[in-house]
Amino acid sequence: MIHPLCQSLIETASPRLQDIQHSFDAYQQACFVERSAEFFALELCGEAGELANLVKKRWKGSEISQDRVAEEAADVLIALMNFCNASKVDLGTAVAAKLAQIKPSK
């Protein structure tokens, strides 16, 4: 049985993610050269690595601004959207299906 809060999240997030993904696709197609899914997979890994590196530095005691973390998190989302579009992955549907499988831990 799906937790009611999870069900609400699924019903809310899935269509919104689909709309956002379509908007990213339109922007990417209008403003940038076409790239392969493999390119965007590598870009996603690179951006996630940059985010992780900032978090690691922060964890070790360096002062890393929230703005820098937010900028890298935004890069990760953009790369993920581009990868999903290039791969023909409907992220809203995929997230909804994954959320339905997750078992709450408390």
Fold and architecture overview:
This protein is mainly α. Helices cover 79% and strands 0% of the residues. It has four helices and no strands. It has helices spanning 4-31, 37-59, 66-87, 91-101. The longest helix has 28 residues, at 4-31.
Oligomer: single chain
In this structure, how is the largest beta sheet organized? Answer: none
Shape: flat
Span between N and C termini? 14 Å
Order of helices and strands: HHHH
What is the total tally of β strands?
Answer: 0
- Residues in helix, %: over 70%
Low-confidence stretches: none
Mean pLDDT, rounded to whole units?
A: 95
Q: What's the gyration radius in Å?
A: 16 Å
How much strand content do the residues show? under 5%
The chain-level structural class is mainly alpha
Enumerate how many helices there are, as a single number. Answer: 4
